[in-house]
TrEMBL record:
Subunit: Homodimer. The dihydroxyacetone kinase complex is composed of a homodimer of DhaM, a homodimer of DhaK and the subunit DhaL.
Cross-referenced Gene3D superfamilies: HPr-like, Phosphotransferase system, mannose-type IIA component
Reactions the enzyme catalyzes: dihydroxyacetone + phosphoenolpyruvate = dihydroxyacetone phosphate + pyruvate
GO biological process, one term: phosphoenolpyruvate-dependent sugar phosphotransferase system
Taxonomic lineage: Bacteria, Bacillati, Actinomycetota, Actinomycetes, Pseudonocardiales
GO MF entry, a single one: phosphoenolpyruvate-glycerone phosphotransferase activity
Location, primary (coarse class): cytoplasm
Protein name per Swiss-Prot or TrEMBL: Phosphocarrier protein HPr
Length: 218
């Protein structure tokens, strides 16, 4: 499984982003590396290298950073790493969450890196064409499609051969994107439409329905 490293000038910021992304993808190694190693703001080349080693299970590591000089340190550490490491220029929080969920779904290094980069430009999903499976689903949890339920949906659908759209009012979202689902703003008790096409369309809709029946495990 792909690992992640979060590099920040602030130890607290790196730890917070790693904790948040970890809530969405509990099986993914997400290692923070923040601060100058002496309790101040900055970055530590040695610490970043150690974080990469810790995050790498053998499949590769995606490194995210906050500011320009952190990229320089991350690039240097990546060059010295023994495994496959990709440093991505992506929004730190959104990129970490998107990459973590994609990694949790078993995606490869390039796909996880692309998910991080693409998190900066979330757009409405296209209408699903062709033969489709549809279902109206009630959001039975108290707060609707916030971060954790959205992550559960995205993780459940990630391995399936299906294009899945969730519609709420006039808005639609790619159901495999945590950020897009959160952007719908669908509250608890709302009804959404799930529309899927592809070989696994029926299974995709069934999985979303099952999560809703369980209250998204909340």
């Amino acid at each position: 499984m792909i690992g992640l490293v979060v590099v920040s000038h602030s130890r607290q910021l790196a730890a917070g982003v790693a904790e948040l992304a970890g809530q969405m993808a509990p099986s993914v190694a997400i290692v923070p590396s923040g601060g100058d190693g002496q309790g101040g703001l900055g970055t530590d080349y040695v610490a970043v290298g150690e974080a990469i080693t810790q995050a790498d299970s053998g499949s590769g590591v995606v490194v995210l950073f906050d500011l320009g000089s952190a990229k320089m340190v991350a690039d240097m550490a990546a060059e010295e790493a023994e495994g496959s490491v990709v440093v991505v220029d992506a929004p730190l929080v959104e990129g970490a969450v998107a990459a973590a969920v994609r990694a949790q779904g078993g995606a490869g290094l390039a796909e996880v890196a692309a998910a991080a980069v693409g998190a900066g430009s979330v757009s409405a999903a296209s209408v699903v064409d062709g033969e489709v499976v549809r279902a109206d689903v009630e959001l039975t949890n108290p707060v609707g499609l916030h971060a954790r339920p959205a992550a559960l949906v995205a993780r459940a659908l990630a391995p399936l051969d299906a294009s899945v759209v969730v519609r709420f009012g006039a808005e639609s979202a790619d159901a495999k994107s945590v950020l897009a689902l959160m952007g719908l703003g669908a509250p608890g008790g709302a009804r959404v439409e799930v529309v899927a096409s592809g070989a696994d369309a029926a299974e995709a809709v069934r999985r979303v329905q099952e999560l809703a029946v369980r209250g998204f495990d909340e």
